[in-house]
Amino acid sequence: MRVALIPVLFVLSAACVPALCGKEEPPVLDLGALAETRSRFAALDDVRLLANGLLQLGQSLREFVQKTKGQINDIFQKLNIFDHSFYQLSVLASEIKEEEEELKKTTVVLQANNEEIKGLSVQINSKVDNILQEKIQLQSKVEGLERKLSSLSHGLVTSEQVAEINSLRDVIQTQEQSITELLKSVKEQSDQINHQRTKIKILEEKLTANTLAQETIERMPEIFNSEAPTLTPFVSPSTAEMMNLPSDCSELFSRGERISGIYAIRPNGSEPFMAFCDMKKDYGVTVIQRRRDGSVNFDQTWEKYENGFGDFQGEFWLGLRKIHSLATQGNSVLHIQLEDWKQGRRLIEYRFYLDGSESNYTIHLTHLSGDLPDLMSNHTGMMFSTKDRDNDNHQEFNCANNYTGGWWFNACGDTNLNGKYFQMRTKGRSERRRGIQWKPSRKAFYSLKLTQISVHPVAPPSPATASSEIGVFL
Q: Interhelix angle for 2-20 vs 31-38, to 10°?
């Protein structure tokens, strides 16, 4: 208010000056100028309101900056994790390339040895042919001598003829001994050639496996971030063909089919679908799961596990709906085959039944036979769980989310055949725990190489025709 009075005093003084100077004009107060002067200054309430608004704006900007910094830090942490994983994959790929080069060098050396052995074999065969020809000539001479002896049977044999006969016998025995030794040498050379071929075949398989492993490692980020492919859909045939579809692969085997592959089946009058039939035993089995190279990401949602995913020619999960339709036929056996990285193969069988979707596909198991430790009996009565549907008995966390893959988790148990696929033994225990598991004892967790889960009726063909061999994972 004091500041506002100063212009008023200036105006009054200006008005009084003409009067003092003797002029007759009365003093005039310019009210418009006074109002204009007052409007140049803001009211204190307006200033306070503006200050509060600026203060709130500053606080909002500070919170936004802090939140943005937190997000940037999270992004940097994820980038660091990705860089570390990518570095490990690069080191692993370089090691595989070095092993591949060494295997190629060894293969070249073995192939050269194989060529040398083939040359020796050709030489030996030519010598054997010559010896056989000489043997034939000697046999013809002996036959001639025998004819001479028969013609001289009425007379005495001279000493010269006896000596000739004895010398011929010695020559024949010597030739036969030479032939025996050569045949023995040929057999040894043949065994050596077969041994070299076996080595070459093993090396070729290792090269193929290393190439596949390298390709899989290079595709790891894509695999683990991608959605699993959809299984081969069923194409509706004619009505007559639909009515003639087998209920499962065992019925297809009984009809005379012996080739493993993809077939259409219709269990228990349900909706027909495509399935992979393994005919390598003396009875057909319907394969519901297979793992062998990590080409398919099994960390999928409930919908994927319910409908099925993967590739019938590689890795796949048939789908809970289809497995339920197979189990409702009754008297079903769950056949599990496992292989570790040392080519050790084991199997186990359970009598099993699977409830429907209303019970979240609860599994019921009774152990039958096998050389694997019985770990699935603890899972009987468990509902199926995935990362987006937690049905396990663990109170603290979701087993499917922490250990990846859908399974009949208890809390969380020592078995999960749908876990993460590792190309080799990982160092961290927590990381190994996320792999394909069938923990045999209190030893450390170990991720498996191959798995196959199949279903067949309780009573396969008679024991006289049944085979005891474990099916090959192909």
A: 160
Q: Does domain 88-206 have CATH number 1.10.287?
A: yes
The runs of H, that is alpha helices, within 315-438 are 320-327, 399-403, 429-432
Give 124's contacts (C-beta < 8 A, 6+ positions apart): 182, 185, 186, 189
- Identify whether the C-beta of residue 471 lies closer than 8 Å to the C-beta of residue 249: no
How many other CB atoms are found less than 10 A from the CB of residue 427?
6
pLDDT tens figures, 200-247: 766 766 666 555 555 555 555 555 456 778 898 887 766 767 788 999
User: DSSP label at 471?
Assistant: P
pLDDT tens-digit map of 256-315: 999 999 999 999 888 999 999 999 878 899 999 999 999 999 999 999 999 999 999 999
Give the separation between CA 329 and CA 230, rounded to whole angstroms: 26
For CATH 1.10.287, the residue range(s) in the chain are: 88-206
- pTM to 2 decimals? 0.54
Structure tokens at 385: 């769980």
**Can you tell me the distance from the alpha carbon of 450 to that of 456, in angstroms, rounded to the nearest whole number?**
20
The helix or strand, by DSSP H or E, that contains position 415, with its residue range, turns out to be strand 415-416
Both tokens of 164, joined, read: 């000739």
Instruction: List, in sequence order, every residue forming a beta bridge with 450; answer none if it has no partner.
Output: 339
- Residue 302 neighbours by CB under 8 Å, 6+ apart: 386, 388, 389, 406
Is 309 within 8 Å of 316 (Cβ atoms)?
yes
**Residue 460 scores a pLDDT above 60:** no
Structure-derived torsion over alpha carbons of residues 320, 322, 327, 328, reported in degrees to the nearest 10: 110
DSSP category for residue 306 = H
- Locate 198 and state its tokens: 């076996």
Residues spanned by CATH 3.90.215.10 within the chain? 239-457
Q: Do residues 255 and 246 make contact, with C-beta atoms less than 8 angstroms apart?
A: yes
Residues paired with residue 149 on neighbouring β-strands, in sequence order? none
Whose CA is closest to 120, among 200, 193, 201, 196? 193
Q: 239-457, what's its fold?
A: Gamma Fibrinogen; Chain A, domain 1 (3.90.215)
Amino acid at 98: E
Cis check: omega of the bond before 16, within 30 degrees of 0: no
- The Cα–Cα gap between 78 and 74 comes to 6
CB atoms within 10 A of CB 1: 4
Cα dist from 240 to 94, 181, 243, 245, 331, whole Å: 57, 68, 5, 9, 28
Q: Are strands 316-317 and 261-265 parallel, antiparallel or unpaired?
A: unpaired
Distances (CA, A) of 305 to 134, 256, 310, 316: 75, 32, 10, 10
CA–CA gap between residue 399 and residue 405 (Å, rounded):
9
The whole-angstrom separation of Cα 359 and Cα 382 is 10
